[in-house]
Amino acid sequence: MMELNVEQFMETLPIMGIGMLSIFAVTIVLILGIWVMNKVTNRKHGDEQ
Does the pLDDT value for residue 4 go beyond 70? Predict the structure, then answer.
């Protein structure tokens, strides 16, 4: 059975935190990019061009 090594777990927490923060930052950038593109290309309903 696997043992939980608390020291190693505590050493990896900052690395996992950076990874989660990076994923969150990329998600925010994508959402903002989509929002900006929607504002720039704002078409009224029924416009063909």
Answer: yes
Rg (CA), the chain: 21
> What are the b/e assignments for 1-16, b being 16+ CB within 10 Å?
eeeeeeeeeeeeeeee
Reported pTM: 0.68
- Residue 5 sits at φ, ψ, to 5 deg, of -90, 105
The number of C-alpha atoms within 13 Å of 9 and in the hemisphere containing its C-beta is 4
Q: Tell me the C-alpha distance between 7 and 44, whole Å.
A: 58
46: which DSSP letter? T
